[in-house]
Design goal:
Blueprint lengths: L1 H27 L7 H36 L1 H7 L4 H19 L6 H22 L14 H12 L7 H16 L6 H79 L3 H28 L5 H16 L2 E8 L6 H20 L5 E8 L3 E8 L15 H11 L3 E6 L5 E8 L4
Parallel strand pairs: 1-2
Antiparallel strand pairs: 2-3, 3-5, 4-5
Helix pairs in contact: 2-4, 2-8, 4-5, 5-6, 5-7, 6-7, 6-8, 7-8, 8-9, 10-11, 11-12
Enzyme class: transferase
Protein name: histidine kinase
Catalytic activity: ATP + protein L-histidine = ADP + protein N-phospho-L-histidine
Length: 428
């Protein structure tokens, strides 16, 4: 009971960490195998949603001020906002603001709807600036609002073309002044130049800070990935040392002891049993060395597969033909292990179940994928009728699915069997 509680206490921090990670992944709509690019995209989406929500709250404040303007006859008369048309326009703004808020979280629709409604806000602002006959245009008290729109566009859409609408608001306002027969004075010209300069300063500062923030975040995400990979490599190397010093030494001792006993044994059947024991220990230590090389990432895949095929041929006396083509590419340890295990399973099935005489192994490195094919001339089987307790094909499919690969098993009774496995050269 005490040991059970101790084990439970040891697992509690790991379980809490898993639960926290799972919660964050679910909130960000990500999977366990999230890449650095997906994490960066999720962060950018969260940043946009937060800023779009801030825009919605700013709109509510402006709409409150708009309601106050409509309620005061002097102010509404100054802007020419009289009658039911003004109230209809006000409620239309309120409706599209709420509709925008409801779709903010959508990755594509949220961005498009926010941009379109922001452009509508800008058009309404330009109309309110230009409409008053006295004190309108470049003399309007609302002209400073244009700077706010430039800031909002730059924060939400820090791209040159996206920021163009608020920058065009000033020349459009000037053109409307001329069309309404309002002459542009020297002071108004200075105002135009001053606001234009402020616009470009705002755009430069906001876009620059956005790019710096995004670059810093990408760097942090990449650093976290590198640290995670380094931790995995260090743990693999530590486990490789422990296995080599522990299990490797035990197997080596078993081989030495079996050789000593073999020299003492005189009985024929006993010597055969000792030889079989020694061969099993030697095979186990070869398998151990292969796994250690894979863990240390210094395993040469092509040569390793060919060596295993030769060793299996010598042990079983089967005719195993190994062919390779293409330029070998560096694969991840998991991908190398998957290819090696599938070769093991294919050769083992050919020897144990298929009673094959000839097995052909082909390893082909393509531009984007690596292909491994194991074909035998055995008695074959029906892939849809796998005997209970045989998990070889299931394990193959699970390995392929985990690495984004594809496996095809083609066989029929009396027609041999073919196992074809392919996976991306850089599986995610």
């Amino acid at each position: 009971m005490t040991e059970t509680h101790a084990a439970s206490d040891e697992e509690k921090p790991a379980n809490d960490l898993r639960a926290r990670v799972r919660t964050v992944l679910q909130r960000r709509k990500l999977t366990d195998s999230v890449s650095a690019e997906q994490a960066a995209a999720s962060w950018e989406q969260d940043r946009f949603v937060a800023r779009a929500r801030a825009l919605f709250y700013a709109r509510m404040m402006f709409l409150t001020l708009g309601l106050l303007i409509l309620a005061v006859p002097t102010w509404s008369g100054y802007f020419g906002l009289n009658g039911p048309v003004a109230f209809a326009g006000y409620f239309a703004m309120l409706l599209y603001s709420v509709a925008n808020f409801l779709v903010i979280d959508h990755p594509k629709a949220g961005r498009w709807v926010t941009y379109l409604t922001l452009c509508l806000d800008l058009i309404i602002m330009v109309v309110l600036i230009a409409k008053p006959q006295v004190g309108g245009g470049l003399q309007s008290p609302l002209l400073a609002t244009q700077l706010l729109f430039t800031t909002l566009f730059a924060i939400l859409y820090p791209k040159p073309l996206s920021i163009l609408p608020p920058l065009l608001a000033l020349p459009v306002t000037t053109r409307l002044d001329l069309l309404l027969n309002r002459s542009v004075t020297a002071i108004e010209l200075l105002t135009l130049l001053w606001y234009s300069a402020l616009n470009f300063i705002i755009v430069y500062v906001v876009v620059y800070l956005n790019e710096r923030e995004a670059a810093a975040h990408r760097e942090v995400v990449e650093l976290q990935g590198d640290l995670k990979e380094l931790a995995v490599v260090e743990e693999r190397n530590r486990m490789a040392r422990e296995i080599h010093d522990g299990l490797g030494a035990s197997l080596s001792s078993m081989i030495i002891q079996s050789e000593y006993i073999l020299g003492l044994a005189k009985d024929g059947p006993l010597r055969d049993e000792i030889l079989e024991l020694k061969a099993s220990a030697e095979e186990s230590i070869d398998e151990l060395r292969r796994n250690l090389r894979m863990m240390r990432e210094d395993f040469e895949l092509t040569q390793g597969l060919e060596d295993y095929a030769k060793t299996f041929r010598d042990r079983t006396q089967m005719d195993i033909r190994f062919e390779r083509s293409g330029t070998p590419k560096k694969l991840s340890p998991d991908a190398q292990l998957a290819l090696f295990r599938i070769l093991q399973e294919g050769l083992s099935n050919a020897a144990k179940h298929a009673q094959a005489k000839v097995v052909t192994v082909k390893l082909d490195f393509g531009e984007a994928r690596v292909h491994l094919t194991v074909r035998d001339d055995g008695k074959g089987f029906d892939p849809k009728k796998t005997p209970r307790g045989h998990y070889g094909l299931l394990n193959m499919r699970e390995r392929a699915m985990k690495l984004g690969g594809e496996i095809i098993v083609d066989s029929a009774p009396g027609a041999g069997a073919m196992v074809s496995f392919s996976l991306p050269c850089n599986p995610s």
